[in-house]
């Protein structure tokens, strides 16, 4: 435990430098501030990818470092999106409504304005009244606070219940998956008050900034996502270094031993679970204004499983692994499903990547799990020449997949 | 990090090169899901568009230029629809797009095309309550499908008690809302309307079907109006057959079941149940025979045609004529020329594009036959599509007129344009 | 009298005129009387609508012509054709897709061959067909063929008419078939309730149905109790058959509803709505003020009230009723529901009969719900039993379990494409599905899972990878469209105990299958060498190995067994629902829930878990019948909470086997 934070975490300055360079390069080529070689739609894709990297960081913290395979973090991500989406929809509609009502002969009462906003927002789903959960939608600051509070509180309550009754391992995974499914099904209902299957849309139009072109707005959001990712990386690196980091890695490798040593395992787990939920919420709040629409399908359990896939392919237990995994797989996925990869004619059959990408992804995932548990991040070990210690066949601990930084340094 | 940089650069390069494509063709964007849950329905429409474009090119293209289809795959992922639409307009530079199926995908695309002044032809029946400057709705509005079908139930079948069954999403919700209000106007009491929503792909229908059968206990004739979507219909119809519900006892009219959906079912137990559309493959007209034989020649003998395909057929041909008339592919000029376009539809009458960007369409009601086709038992004269329904108090006062008023959401009471852009 | 004669004469002339016109048009051919009758109503028949067709059907029915019945029957069966050139009606037989041979209605002589485009098929809609069926009753009730007579009874049941009662009574005298006779007697009683003219007979008929469960009986009784809500000034009228008096402000009748009832009956002035008030204010803006209130201040309710009151006082707008007016109006009137049926004796009898019925119906509905729940539980159990083996016994999480179910279902589909006989194809499909998924399971265990024992989280992810690959593979092979898997004829239909309780045979079959597999599982685990070895390996693989058991082989076989059962579950689920590539993922979460709730490692726990989830889901659906989605949400939330209190499930393993 010697040296400064940065020297103990050499990946932090390298990562931040790369991120800054990347942001600069994108800015230089963007339509708004540069040569315009980079289209706005691709800029949006890149901005969204940064948000996905942020939530992958959270996933890595909770799974790669603490050993909790949560299949519910995309739910927190989605909740963050919904919270900011409510304000975006309300405020944009309010602008439209007040503008149109200003023409009428008699000034509208407050109730009339709210009713008109309700009709506009909920008209498409056959209703006109504001459900109670929209109570604070008119205030940006409250909704911003809710971006952090709602995922945080949900994670706190759920985590407290789950950890308290010692639900661990696959049970916990299934339980978090059930939570995600319940939330998605709940949001799918129109009665949930969040427009059911339609979700919240038109989120890319920021109220008050209607005059700003999307090319500029996208760049701003890209910057914000980059800053959030950088800050998130710093925060996660700080959390996992030092004593706290040792304890959570201990919990991952053998929970019972850590408990016998007198640590409050539940408290540590709860803290990490809640913290990562908050990070996921923030990532979501940045992601959905760039995507433009959020609906319950985004929260479906499969999304959270994909999150785990990214982290596994990138390499668990190392922060940059998660970032690489998320960026690599999601961009690759965009390329393959977008038909940008040419089909492979085999003579008797033509492999059309739109159809076969999922098969490829699934199989490569199995292969990574089996043969390269360290994921892409394992390549960096080859470069730096770092090897796992030779324990003459004896096991380091229960989880072979995770990278054990401290133990490996002997 | 490096990997991401490279992939970003590769992507940027790919876009940059495609943006410099030659300029002597007119580009048409096809925005239909080719993978994911909607692929089943939308792939057919992509093939329809490619067929129509090939046929037009064989006739010499438009304005002396060949047409070039740009096909993208939004993968049934709603945010991706917005992203791909932006890509089509800004990167590929398409002059018009044909696409979307679900309402939520249309709502996802709307802000993008309104921002970039694109042009979209939307071919599927939908819940109405919308009229965008940049969208032409070639599918049915509620008054072109749901309301006439309900009238048919009320008048021809003498139904006095209604079960509105739907999948829980926006189209059934809004349609059932409109129908409830319409039925109350027609003197049906609130307690005689039973509404139920089920999730996508629902399979356990026994209780719901029993509930519907039990509705008959007060001596009124029961009818089911189904807005059940996709493969949930299979379980529903299987359960109807299992419980021995015949069309003579409890007729079911479906708004989302067409020739394609029935091909996943043994229809022998469903004979006599109904569907309401603006087109059936069994419609008798020369144009339809030509269309079907062209489709079968291209795609295979066992393929069927359906209503959204007809919508694309009309929409595409109208667009071609409008471009020829305007002499340019400029969106504003074409939009102006679109209004008032007439083109024969496949059922023997003529479709007219109205100032509210909807079509006039005949309403057909068909009974399911043993072979999975429909026997057309009722056909109306073309009905003008109504963007804002007259049966909900908030929208009864609204109208859309892009020709004279230049507004898609005009309040006739206050005589003001509520908003220029659409609700998303 | 003279007028009637004249009218009759005129009608006669008209008929003659029509047939004369036909003759002249048709040249020499003499038009038969039935054709003349059809031509007379040609306009109605061509555009048949339930609203207008009645006279045409009645004319045919009452014509007394021998061909009338054949015309009606053919018309009903969409086998009546019209020649376009002259509008004459014919029967027809198909020669090929586009050519038909027309046949004279009268006499059955062939007329010639016509292209389909030259003739029109008449397609009465089902409303019209119902009316035709009702008209045919009088011919069919006396038909020597019992099937025809039963058809007539169906028609009466669907669209009863007053004339059917005497016709039925007539038929009853000669009916010999006991089954049809019983139906006829029941229908006579039902029709007596509705159309009988003797009060005592009606009451007797009503009482005869006490405790009956039939929907038709309730359908006959309920209309007798139809009420209308009315209001009159003063006291309750005594000459009406009053169901109940209502107090405004009570639960049945809110004050607002009561007042609007008065307004509807012109017993009180209407209150002005917010929108109307706004419109009234807008039209009366004078110099930036309305009723003395500046326009700018009109953005609150109070200000608008004030402005409107000022306008009303000035007599510009009609005054609106105040709260005091409303209370006074409500006080001055009585509100009540009255029966449309004037006879108290009949409504009392109906009320009493229905009360007894409703109790029995309620009990039977509970029974029906129980059956539904049991059926759902057996489906969940069947889907989960394979998982109970792989997850419960071996501790291996198999996310691809759902895809094994899907593979089973597709195997069934493929077999049906090859073997056309549904019964044989199901008998082939069941073992084949087992074999296919057994092989897939063994392959997966050998290739993937074997390397990941002791790393449960990674097994979860690896099997998930297999799951998405298999799902997409199924999409690529079979397409995204749902594929038909049709059950054999003997599984069609439902076991109907009465009009309330019924359960489809396919669900019974699934229930039996689930029980069968419970038995098979118990037998294998308890009575066979394999079961013994499985249990040994589960408890302590090293010890088992040292006793000469090969754990690798046992694991492989166990996994294969679990997967194989999933395949059979797939065939069963495909039969009752649909076969799509997403079939498996619909069941995977529920299956895990079932195993986890029940308790891992114990088949009885899985059974209990499935039962609990099945009953819970149906229970919530019953509480909230209009939203099935909510039922699923609340069920999952309940399970999450349940696991808090029993983290190891309903039946938790104790002692060493529990491990950690």
Automatic annotation (TrEMBL), chain A:
In what way does this protein cross or attach to the membrane?
Multi-pass membrane protein
User: Pfam families attached here?
Assistant: BPD_transp_2
**Transmembrane domains' residue ranges:** 42-63, 70-90, 140-163, 170-188, 220-240, 267-287, 293-312, 319-336, 356-383
Q: Which PANTHER family match?
A: HIGH-AFFINITY BRANCHED-CHAIN AMINO ACID TRANSPORT SYSTEM PERMEASE, SLR1201 PROTEIN
Q: Which NCBIfam families match?
A: urea_trans_UrtC
- Check the record and name the InterPro entries matching this protein: ABC_transp_permease, ABC_transptr_urea_perm_UrtC, LivM-like
Location in the cell: Cell membrane
Which GO cellular component terms, listed alphabetically, does the Swiss-Prot or TrEMBL entry include?
plasma membrane
Broad class of where this protein is predominantly found: membrane
Q: What name appears for this protein in its UniProt entry? A: Amino acid/amide ABC transporter membrane protein 2, HAAT family
Q: Which UniProt keywords apply?
A: Cell membrane, Membrane, Signal, Transmembrane, Transmembrane helix
**UniProt signal peptide:** 1-32
Molecular function terms, GO-annotated? branched-chain amino acid transmembrane transporter activity
Q: Which domain of life is it from?
A: Bacteria
TrEMBL record, chain B:
Q: Which InterPro entries match?
A: ABC_urea-bd_UrtA, Peripla_BP_I
Query: What Pfam family is a match, any one?
Result: Peripla_BP_5
Organism superkingdom: Bacteria
Signal peptide span: 1-21
Q: Which UniProt keywords apply?
A: Signal
* Name under which the protein is recorded: Amino acid/amide ABC transporter substrate-binding protein, HAAT family
Q: Which organism is it from?
A: Tropicimonas sediminicola
TrEMBL record, chain C:
Subcellular location as annotated: Cell membrane
GO process terms (BP): amino acid transport
Q: How does it sit in the membrane?
A: Multi-pass membrane protein
Which InterPro entries does the entry link to?
ABC_transp_permease (IPR001851), ABC_UrtB_bac (IPR017779), BCAA_transport_permease (IPR052157)
Which residues belong to the signal peptide in this entry? 1-20
Alphabetical GO CC annotations of the entry are: plasma membrane
TM ranges are 379-401, 422-444, 505-525, 556-576, 588-616, 628-645
What is an example of a GO molecular function annotated in this UniProt entry? transmembrane transporter activity
Q: Does Transport count among this protein's keywords?
A: yes
Recorded hits in Pfam families, A to Z, give: BPD_transp_2
Which keywords does UniProt give here? Amino-acid transport, Cell membrane, Membrane, Signal, Transmembrane, Transmembrane helix, Transport
Tell me the protein family, please: Belongs to the binding-protein-dependent transport system permease family. LivHM subfamily.
Q: What's the protein here called? A: Amino acid/amide ABC transporter membrane protein 1, HAAT family
Q: Tell me which species this is from.
A: Tropicimonas sediminicola
Q: What is the lineage of its organism?
A: Bacteria, Pseudomonadati, Pseudomonadota, Alphaproteobacteria, Rhodobacterales
């Amino acid at each position: 435990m010697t040296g400064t934070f940065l020297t103990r975490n050499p990946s932090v300055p390298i990562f931040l430098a790369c991120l800054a360079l990347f942001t600069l390069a994108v800015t230089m080529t963007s339509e708004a501030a540069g040569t315009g070689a980079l289209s706005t739609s691709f800029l949006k894709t890149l901005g969204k990818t940064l948000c996905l990297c942020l939530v992958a960081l959270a996933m890595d913290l909770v799974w790669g470092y603490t050993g909790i395979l949560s299949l519910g973090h995309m739910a927190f991500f989605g909740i963050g999106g919904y919270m900011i989406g409510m304000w975006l929809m309300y405020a944009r509609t309010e602008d439209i409504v007040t503008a149109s009502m200003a023409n009428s002969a008699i000034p509208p009462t407050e109730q009339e304005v709210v009713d008109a906003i309700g009709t506009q927002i909920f008209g498409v789903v056959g209703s006109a009244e504001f459900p109670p959960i929209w109570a604070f939608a008119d205030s940006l600051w409250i909704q911003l606070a809710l971006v952090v509070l709602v995922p945080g509180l949900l994670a706190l309550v759920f985590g407290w219940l789950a950890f308290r009754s010692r639900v661990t391992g696959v049970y916990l995974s299934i339980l978090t998956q059930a939570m995600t499914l319940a939330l998605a099904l709940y949001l799918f209902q129109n009665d949930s008050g969040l427009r059911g299957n339609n979700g919240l849309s038109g989120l890319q139009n920021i109220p008050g900034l209607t005059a700003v072109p999307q090319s500029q707005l996208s760049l701003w959001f890209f910057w914000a996502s980059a800053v959030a990712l950088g800050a998130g990386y710093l925060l996660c690196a700080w959390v996992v270094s030092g004593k706290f980091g040792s304890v959570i890695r201990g919990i991952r490798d053998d929970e019972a031993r850590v408990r016998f040593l007198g640590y409050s395992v539940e408290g540590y787990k709860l803290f990490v679970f809640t913290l990562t939920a908050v990070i996921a919420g923030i990532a979501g709040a940045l992601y959905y204004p760039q995507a433009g629409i959020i609906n319950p399908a985004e929260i479906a359990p499969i999304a959270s499983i994909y999150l785990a896939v990214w982290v596994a392919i990138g390499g668990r237990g190392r922060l940059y692994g998660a970032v690489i995994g998320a960026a690599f797989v999601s961009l690759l996925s965009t390329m393959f499903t977008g038909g940008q990869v040419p089909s492979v004619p085999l003579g008797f059959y033509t492999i059309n990547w739109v159809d076969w990408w999922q098969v490829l992804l699934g199989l490569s995932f199995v292969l990574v799990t089996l043969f390269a548990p360290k994921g892409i991040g394992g390549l960096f070990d080859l470069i730096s020449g770092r090897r796992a210690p030779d324990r003459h066949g004896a096991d380091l601990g229960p989880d072979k997949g995770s990278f054990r930084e401290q133990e490996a340094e002997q | 990090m490096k990997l991401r940089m490279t992939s970003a650069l590769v992507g940027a390069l790919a876009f940059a090169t495609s943006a410099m494509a030659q300029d002597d063709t007119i580009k048409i964007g096809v925005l239909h899901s080719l993978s994911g849950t909607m692929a089943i329905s939308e792939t057919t429409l992509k093939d329809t568009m490619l067929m129509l474009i090939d046929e037009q090119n064989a006739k010499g293209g438009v304005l002396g230029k060949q047409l070039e289809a740009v096909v993208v795959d939004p993968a049934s992922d709603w945010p991706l629809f917005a992203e791909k639409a932006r890509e089509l307009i800004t990167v590929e530079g398409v002059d018009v797009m044909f696409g979307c199926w679900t309402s939520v995908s249309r709502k996802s695309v709307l802000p993008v095309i309104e921002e970039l002044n694109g042009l979209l032809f939307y071919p599927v029946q939908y819940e109405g309550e919308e009229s965008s400057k940049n969208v032409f709705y070639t599918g049915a509005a509620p008054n072109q499908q749901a309301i006439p079908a309900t009238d048919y139930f009320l008048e021809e079948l003498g139904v006095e008690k209604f079960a509105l069954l739907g999948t829980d999403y926006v189209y059934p919700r809004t349609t059932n809302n409109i129908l409830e209000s319409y039925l109350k106007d027609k003197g049906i009491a609130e307690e005689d309307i039973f509404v139920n929503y089920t999730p996508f792909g629902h399979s356990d229908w026994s209780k719901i079907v029993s509930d519907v059968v039990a509705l008959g206990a007060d001596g009124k004739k029961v009818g089911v109006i189904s807005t059940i979507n996709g493969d949930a219909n299979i379980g529903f119809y299987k359960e109807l057959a299992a419980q021995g519900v015949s069309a003579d006892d409890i007729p079911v009219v479906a708004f989302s079941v067409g020739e394609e959906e029935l091909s996943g079912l043994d229809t022998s137990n469903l004979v006599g149940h109904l569907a309401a559309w603006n087109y059936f493959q069994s419609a008798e007209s020369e144009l339809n025979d030509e269309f079907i034989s062209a489709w079968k020649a291209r795609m295979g003998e066992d393929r069927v045609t359906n209503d959204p395909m007809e919508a694309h057929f009309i929409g595409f041909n109208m667009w071609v004529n409008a471009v020829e008339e305007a002499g340019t592919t400029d969106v504003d000029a074409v939009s102006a020329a679109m209004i008032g376009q007439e083109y024969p539809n496949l059922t023997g009458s003529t479709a007219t594009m109205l100032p509210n960007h909807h079509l006039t369409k005949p309403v057909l009601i068909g009974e399911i036959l043993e072979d999975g086709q429909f026997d057309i038992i009722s056909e109306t004269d073309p009905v003008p599509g109504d963007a804002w329904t007259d049966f909900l108090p908030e929208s009864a006062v609204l109208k859309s007129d892009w020709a004279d008023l230049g507004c898609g959401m005009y309040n006739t009471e206050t005589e003001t344009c509520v908003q220029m852009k659409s609700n998303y | 009298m003279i007028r009637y004669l004249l009218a009759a004469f005129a009608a006669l002339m008209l008929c003659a005129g029509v047939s004369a016109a036909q003759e002249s048009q048709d040249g020499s051919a003499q038009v038969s009387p039935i054709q003349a009758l059809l031509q007379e109503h040609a306009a109605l028949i061509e555009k048949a609508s339930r609203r207008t067709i009645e006279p045409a059907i009645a004319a045919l029915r009452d014509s007394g012509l021998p061909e009338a019945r054949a015309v009606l029957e053919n018309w009903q069966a969409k086998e009546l054709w019209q020649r376009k050139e002259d509008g004459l009606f014919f029967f027809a037989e198909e020669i090929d897709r586009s050519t038909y041979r027309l046949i004279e209605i009268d006499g059955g002589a062939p007329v010639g061959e016509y292209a389909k485009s030259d003739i029109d098929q008449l397609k009465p809609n089902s409303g019209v067909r119902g009316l035709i069926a009702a008209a045919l009753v009088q011919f069919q009730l006396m038909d020597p063929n019992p099937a025809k007579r039963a058809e007539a009874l169906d028609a009466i049941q669907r669209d009863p008419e007053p004339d059917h009662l005497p016709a039925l009574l007539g038929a009853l005298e000669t009916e010999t078939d006991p089954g049809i006779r019983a139906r006829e007697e029941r229908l006579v009683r039902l029709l007596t309730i509705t159309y009988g003219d003797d009060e005592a007979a009606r009451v007797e008929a009503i009482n005869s149905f006490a405790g009956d469960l039939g929907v038709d009986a309730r359908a006959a009784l309920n209309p007798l109790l139809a009420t209308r809500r009315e209001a009159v000034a003063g006291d309750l009228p005594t000459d009406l058959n009053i169901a109940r008096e209502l107090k405004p402000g009570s639960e049945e009748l809110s004050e607002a509803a009561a007042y609007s009832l008065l307004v509807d009956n012109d017993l009180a002035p209407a209150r002005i709505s917010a929108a109307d008030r706004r419109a009234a204010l807008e039209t009366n803006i004078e110099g930036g003020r309305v009723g003395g209130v500046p326009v700018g201040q009109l953005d609150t309710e109070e200000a608008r009230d004030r402005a409107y009151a000022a306008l009303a006082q000035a007599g510009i707008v009609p005054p609106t009723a105040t709260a005091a007016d409303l209370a006074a109006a409500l006080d001055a009137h009585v509100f009540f529901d009255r029966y449309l049926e004037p006879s108290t004796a009949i409504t009392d009898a109906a009320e009493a009969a229905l009360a007894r019925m409703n109790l029995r119906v309620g009990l039977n509905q509970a029974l029906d719900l129980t059956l539904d729940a049991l059926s759902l539980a057996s489906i969940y159990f069947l889907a989960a039993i394979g998982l109970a083996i792989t997850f419960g016994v071996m501790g291996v999480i198999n996310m691809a379990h759902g895809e094994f179910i899907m593979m089973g279902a597709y195997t069934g589909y493929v077999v049906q494409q090859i073997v056309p006989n549904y019964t044989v194809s199901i008998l082939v499909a069941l073992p084949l599905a087992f074999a296919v998924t057994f092989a897939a399971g063994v392959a997966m265990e050998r290739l993937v899972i074997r390397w990941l024992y002791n790393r449960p989280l990674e097994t979860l992810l690896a099997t998930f990878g297999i799951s998405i690959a298999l799902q997409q593979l199924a999409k690529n092979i079979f397409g995204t469209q749902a594929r038909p898997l049709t059950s054999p004829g003997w599984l069609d239909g439902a076991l109907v105990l009465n009009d309330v309780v019924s359960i489809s045979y396919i669900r019974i079959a699934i229930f039996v299958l689930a029980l069968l597999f419970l038995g098979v599982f118990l037998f294998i685990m308890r009575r066979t060498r394999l079961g013994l070895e499985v249990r040994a390996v589960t408890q302590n693989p090293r010890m088992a190995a040292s006793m000469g058991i090969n754990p690798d082989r046992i694991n492989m076989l166990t996994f294969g067994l679990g997967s194989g059962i999933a395949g059979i579950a797939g065939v069963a689920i495909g039969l009752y629902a649909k076969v799509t590539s997403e079939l498996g993922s619909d069941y995977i979460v529920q299956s895990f829930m079932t195993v986890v709730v029940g308790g891992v490692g114990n088949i009885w726990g899985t059974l209990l878990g499935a039962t609990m989830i099945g009953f819970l889901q149906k229970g919530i659906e019953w509480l909230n019948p209009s939203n099935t989605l909510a039922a699923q949400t609340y069920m999952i939330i309940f399970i999450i909470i349940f696991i808090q209190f029993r983290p190891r499930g309903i039946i938790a393993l104790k002692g060493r086997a529990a491990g950690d």
